[in-house]
Amino acid sequence: GNSVTQMEGPVTLSEEAFLTINCTYTATGYPSLFWYVQYPGEGLQLLLKATKADDKGSNKGFEATYRKETTSFHLEKGSVQVSDSAVYFCAPRSGSEKLVFGKGTKLTVNP
Amino acid sequence: EADIYQTPRYLVIGTGKKITLECSQTMGHDKMYWYQQDPGMELHLIHYSYGVNSTEKGDLSSESTVSRIRTEHFPLTLESARPSHTSQYLCASSAPSGGSAGGELFFGEGSRLTVL
Fold first, then answer.
1. CB contact (8 A) between residue B45 and residue A87
2. Based on C-alpha coordinates, what's the Rg of chain A?
3. DSSP label at A84?
4. Which of B45, B88, B104 is the best mutation test for A, with the most CBs of A within 10 A?
């Protein structure tokens, strides 16, 4: 089955700082890769995804590139805002297999 | 826009009570899931269903049970709640992997259960 190793938090940054959250995975076949975000008091929602090698997913200023050779899908944002404070989950999914989540990285952005 | 709903959002009950957490989706998804989220944020799959009359236990053992009598409805039941069941429960459904949504999961807002 699939597995994922995600950078542990918590991560605390000042507003406008650069953000990287590392994610590496092992998967059967050719997985799709997802980043989900959970804002305080809410369920998870899809942040971005990539379905094939070298694809770049992007949304709300966040980006992640599907790196098949290093089995990685690191999340980046050039300038974080207070509103980005949330928990971020990386997840690979192969075919009809169940989605496997990383342990989550809590991000706090201070003004 | 995802249409998946959980009720109640918050529930505080005493030990020994029976509770049912409701989950409904209007997207026609066959696959549905229940996750338990611990205070450290990690998500644990406790039940899933690939369609009507199909239910399976997930990776984390749970004393809860589920049923799937209708496509849109996937309730979770605890026959006798205990303090160890205190947690956040998240319901999700997924589009087919080959479709435009690419296997994405859609989550409800969660049910936070506290057992005293």
1. no
2. 13
3. G
4. B104
